[in-house]
């Protein structure tokens, strides 16, 4: 399954949904993570908050390919996208294992293929380097075989990258 997580305006919804199996809009219509870790322990992969992100762990965990479309925020994800990623901690378990000679949480859903990040908005060279590193580390943590980062000069280039 291909998932697109995005913070794009509503007028881009049709384009996004035509390019994937599942789209998850980081539109801010949900609560931020409370840090209770219930999605790890009490009710695995399900958030106790009953909003549109209650099943975010399952949605992200079952995707073979995740494309994150985000506005650049000082070399990191936009706040709405970061909120969704925070709410998806249940894609892993609280147990640890070694992957690539490094300690990581055990994956709840197994390995995946591609973690792709499409960044729009101005980005300095340092911010671009930060995004590349962030995407690489997110891919390792979430069990993705590879990562890719694309920087757009303008949102009109988006369709070709999805």
Overall pLDDT, averaged? 95
Strand neighbour order, sheet with most strands: 2-1-3-6-7
The number of helical segments is 5
Based on secondary structure, the structural category is alpha/beta
How is the CATH topology named?
A: Rossmann fold
Q: How many domains make up the 3D coordinates? A: 1
**How many DSSP-defined strands?**
7
Spatial extent as radius of gyration: 15 Å
Q: What's the oligomerization state?
A: single chain
CATH architecture: 3-Layer(aba) Sandwich
Share of residues in strands: 25-35%
At a glance:
The protein is built from five helices and seven strands, in the order E-H-E-H-E-H-E-E-E-H-E-H.
What does the model show?
- The model has no long low-confidence stretch (mean pLDDT 95).
- It is globular, with a radius of gyration of 15 Å.
- It contains five helices and seven strands, in the order E-H-E-H-E-H-E-E-E-H-E-H.
- The chain has one domain: Flavodoxin domain (Rossmann fold, 3-Layer(aba) Sandwich), CATH 3.40.50.360.
- With 162 residues, it is of the alpha/beta class.
- It has a five-stranded parallel sheet with strand order 2-1-3-6-7. A two-stranded antiparallel sheet has the order 4-5.
- The relative contact order is 0.18.
